[in-house]
Amino acid sequence: MWEALIEHHASRDCGTVTRTARDRGLLRIAMRFYAIAAHASDNDAFKEAAWLLVRAGRRQEAI
Fold this sequence. Notes:
The chain is an all-alpha fold. 75% of the residues lie in helices and 0% in strands. It has helices at 2-8, 14-23, 27-39, 43-55, 59-62. Helix 2 (14-23) runs antiparallel to helix 3. The longest helix has 13 residues, at 27-39. The protein is globular and about 30 Å long. The mean pLDDT is 84.
């Protein structure tokens, strides 16, 4: 289901789907949605992705 959402998402739903994935502990899926949002010029996506990396213990990648 998550792969289908990544492939066929509506950009207006990206934030909601990203938060849902993140809250369920699906960090790789959430990061893919953050990348999609960042590519669409969503500056908040960069901050959220960095926070997610720190939370996952990957601080160096967040910097």
